Amino acid sequence: MYETLNRLRLLVRRWRLPVLIGVAAAAALALSACTSTSDDQQQQQEEQQQEQPENTAESTPVSGTTGTVRSGSSSGSSTQRATAEDQQGAQAEQQAVAQTADRTQSDDEPMQQQQDDGMGGMEAGMSVGIIEEANYDDLSPRLQLLRDSGYPVYVSGDGYIIALGTPDLSPGAHRISVVIEGPNGLVEFPALGITVVPQDAPGEMQEVVARFSRFPDGVRGFHVTSVDFTAVGRWNLILHIPAEGGFDDVGIAIDVPEDTSAPSVGDAAPASASRTLIDVANIADLSTGETPDPGLYLISLADAVAADKPFVVVFASPGFCTNAFCGPQAEVLSEVRELFGDRANYIHVDLFENPEQVRLGEEPIETPILEEWGLHTDEWTFIVNAEGVVVARFEAFAPLAEVEAALAQVLEG
Q1: I want to staple 27 with a disulfide (CB 3.0 to 4.6 A). Which of 9, 155, 156, 202 is the partner?
Q2: Which pLDDT score is estimated for 69?
């Protein structure tokens, strides 16, 4: 079965995201450090500084290349991050958690909840290795399948595997999702801090909070947040993963091009001639799912664009949802339809033109609508307003709460 799925993926996908190469340049990040120690603690810290080189990266990838992002004081001086056993390091860690919680506190979320989440952030004197996307041939078959679906994969030297579920980026605000696997399996901590650093302008550092979202299957899940990319170029995402005694800091390098491949918010939705129930003899010709919802095949994309009514469209292949970012998106769309009824239209487009034959093991034929929409990863959801303009987009699986909230905003004006 696994070999069959891999063969299908290789047959269908005519693209593969290029392996990111190069070295992430070292950048001085301006942060102030406030520490208080006794004379004995100060002496111990100075001895540790003499034993450790100042620019040592904390993470080394299994494959690819590594750069270093370092944080220092505004005067150009730097301090070494103390070890977890050192009392001063513990005090600095507590201070960083409090500072991050204060920065990310929202009006409807009390600071205590933020602190309980255990978020970390960048500290003065902190060095973090930046991992490039892993070489395809160095990945396991499971991770190669993820790459075949268009999702970048990063492997650190200390046992972390990070996959990016939202690689279709451009300058502006974007939803970002990551699956993090650590030495003990899937990282499911309720929230974690992410430091976002543009390589060419390290002073424009952002601190965001990524919340864990579990899939309906109760097993899988990812962390999701929003990042405002202010410019084209190389960006570093430094994940502060809660660990025993503090945080494991793992940085990944991503590229932000001038424009997305898929429609962005504000773009016109392509008026594609998707098939409906009247175009086929059997609903099995429209979906690889076992029990397709007929209510998702009543109107074509072309007619929906011209209908003067908002609509939600999902691109997914329910019968071959096998990777870490692929969830029951068509089922979520059915739930959205039940919630909002005829206030909107609802469309599912399978990735394959011949879903019934694919289920029987025949060669898959990719629908040309994917190219019309510029979709290079496996699962997408778009919300389009009554004027035919994209108002929300979700790359990879989007839980019901996210889609419901976005559609409600459109319908409520």
Answers
A1: 202
A2: 59
CATH code of residue 115: 2.60.40.10
Q: Are residues 246 and 329 in the same domain?
A: no
Q: Pairing relation of β-strands 345-349 and 233-243? A: unpaired
Q: Please check whether residue 268 lies inside any domain of the structure.
A: no
**Residue 381's closest CA among 352, 343, 346?**
346
Tokens of 345: 């239209």
Q: Give the Cα separation of 330 and 318 in Å (integer).
A: 7
Residues of the chain with pLDDT > 70, as a percent, come to 69
Q: Are 190 and 328 in a shared domain?
A: no
**Same domain, yes or no, for 295 and 152?**
no
Q: Give the whole-angstrom CA distance, residue 253 versus residue 115.
A: 28
Same domain, 298 and 182: no
Let me know if residue 403 belongs to a domain: yes
Asked whether the beta carbons of 45 and 36 are under 8 A apart, the reply is: no
Q: Is residue 203 part of a domain?
A: yes
Say whether both 351 and 202 belong to one domain.
no
Q: Looking at residue 245, what is its pLDDT? A: 85
Q: Are residues 44 and 157 in the same domain?
A: yes
Same domain? For 390 and 245 the reply is no
pLDDT value, residue 61: 34
Q: In the block, which residue shows the tokens 């974007």? A: 174
**Containing domain of residue 300, as a range?**
277-411
The count of domains in the chain is: 2
Q: Is residue 113 part of a domain?
A: yes
Question: 290 and 251 in one domain?
Answer: no
What's this model's pTM, rounded to 2 decimal places?
0.74
